Structure formats: C-alpha cells, structure tokens
C-alpha cells in the first residue's frame, strides 16, 4: 500500500487522474485492497483498455 501511495500521491488536484493497471485475474482484489486508502484511484485491467487511450507510465509497483 505504501508503494502505491508514494507513486500516486494526492490525486485530488491532478488534471490527469492516475490509473493502476493490473491483470484481469487480480483486478477486483487489488481494487478491494485499495478501496479504503485510495478510493479515488481507478484500477483497470489491460484488457479493458481501448486502442485510442494514450498511456504514460509513471512507475512500476512490485512486491
């Protein structure tokens, strides 16, 4: 959780909201883990992205 917070920071004033990308298999579990501390952070799977979306990676979060 600390790693996510340090990368994302405060998203309330951001003009472009960060999104956490993960695999479809664990997306719902990641969302549940982040719900309490980072409820405004969108969690999407790679499969949910369309080709017209431009992604700018901020960081890679690992265990």
Description:
The protein contains 2 helices and 2 strands; from the N terminus they run H-E-H-E. It has 63 residues and is α+β, with helices and mostly antiparallel strands. It has a domain at 17-52. A two-stranded parallel sheet has the order 1-2. The chain is globular and about 30 Å long. It starts with a helix and ends in an 18-residue tail after the last strand.
Count of individual helical segments: 2
State the secondary-structure class.
alpha+beta
Helix-residue proportion: 25-40%
The total beta strand count reads: 2
Provide mean pLDDT, rounded: 84
User: If strands are numbered along the chain, what order do they take across the biggest sheet?
Assistant: 1-2
> What is the element string, with H for helices and E for strands?
HEHE
Any idea what the shape is?
globular
User: Which residues sit in consecutive blocks of at least 5 with pLDDT less than 50?
Assistant: none
Largest sheet: 2 strands, parallel
Rg from Cα: 12 Å
Cα distance spanning the termini: 10 Å
- Strand-residue proportion: 5-15%
Describe how the helices and strands are arranged.
Elements: H1 2-8, E1 19-22, H2 27-35, E2 42-45
Short description:
The chain is an alpha+beta fold and 63 residues long. Helix content is 25%, strand content 13%.
Keywords:
single chain, 63 residues, alpha+beta, two-stranded parallel ribbon, 2 helices, 13% strand, globular
């Amino acid at each position: 959780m600390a790693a996510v917070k340090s990368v994302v920071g405060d998203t309330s004033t951001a003009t472009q909201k960060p999104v956490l990308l993960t695999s479809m298999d664990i997306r719902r579990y990641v969302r549940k883990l982040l719900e309490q501390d980072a409820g405004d952070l969108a969690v999407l799977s790679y499969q949910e992205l369309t080709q017209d979306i431009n992604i700018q990676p901020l960081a890679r979060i690992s265990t």
